[in-house]
From TrEMBL:
Gene Ontology terms: cellular component: cytochrome complex; plasma membrane
Alphabetical UniProt keywords: Cell membrane, Electron transport, Heme, Iron, Membrane, Metal-binding, Transmembrane, Transmembrane helix, Transport
Organism: Arachnia propionica
Protein name per the record: Cytochrome d ubiquinol oxidase subunit II
Membrane association type: Multi-pass membrane protein
Amino acid sequence: MFLLETATTLTGVPLLNTIWFLLIAVLWIGFFFLEGFDFGVAMLLPILGRDDKERRVLVNTIGPNWDGNEVWLLTAGGATFAAFPGWYASLFSGLYLPLLLILVGLILRGVAFEYRSKSPDAQWRRMFDWFAIVGSFLPSLVLGVGFANFVIGLANDNLLWNGDFFGLFGPFALLGGVLFVVLFLVHGATFVGLKTRGRIQHRAEAFVRRVGWAAVALMALFVFCQQTFHPANSEFGDFTLVGWLLAVVAVLALAGSVFMTGHRSREGWGFVLGGLSIVALFSGIFVRLYGNLGFTQDVTVAADQRLNILTAAASETTLTLMTWATVIFLPIVLAYQAWSYWVFSRRVSTKNIPDGIVY
């Protein structure tokens, strides 16, 4: 325990600070990988589902796990609060409105999945389907805009964000919002192709063929702009080469996913490569965030007067206790979630839903 408290990384950052930054990054990446296809499936309800029974099948593909996937987001927020209270305080106070929009979207989506089946009335189901669509579109768009702004760097003063809300919607930020929506649509369609059979599966593959290459183009443009104009190079280390390597992996993996799913009908490989693309994209973003935590850094100001991985962190004792608790409980949680996916791993189709019972 003492060694963990006193050790530092090559960049001079305490080891525990780096460990918890990486753990938070893993939680966010896990959220986007798992919840990304949940968002995509919900947004695809009116596109892939032509009637109530087919839309019921789409809901069933994510029904057993969508709420468990959201836990990754809650845990990421909780870990940020505990490990980097300064980071948490600045984001949740300065970016209150965007976070409120995300919360509204998640509430709409949760209500949709929980209450859709409470009535056989077709209009009732259509209303909650739209709740699910809007509730998935809003978080995708807002999170895309938000993470693009983290790449650019948020202005801060006295350890708090001091920027303008409307200044968050620059060209690169809007590109991030569009990318996230399109990427999750393709990720969701790939997942539907993996989890269904019959007409819905064929429509999902056709959707990937039509929209997938647009997602590849958006991904390539986003990572090129990121690495060119906002490279991962700061006083905390030069990770430019790592950023470029992750950018190339993200684009090539997504292209491979589109090719495998839409042209070769290899849904398993398509899903794996699509997931790899998301992991590489967000790994590159968090490489950029390392040290600066997504805030601009004025090097003329003393490091202890700027919001960064040093000033935002909790005490060494707190980080040490959290580390040991994570070592004990994290494998249990991961094993349980992996088991739940294994239990519900079979494909579904309209044949699994009896006639007259579609809600």
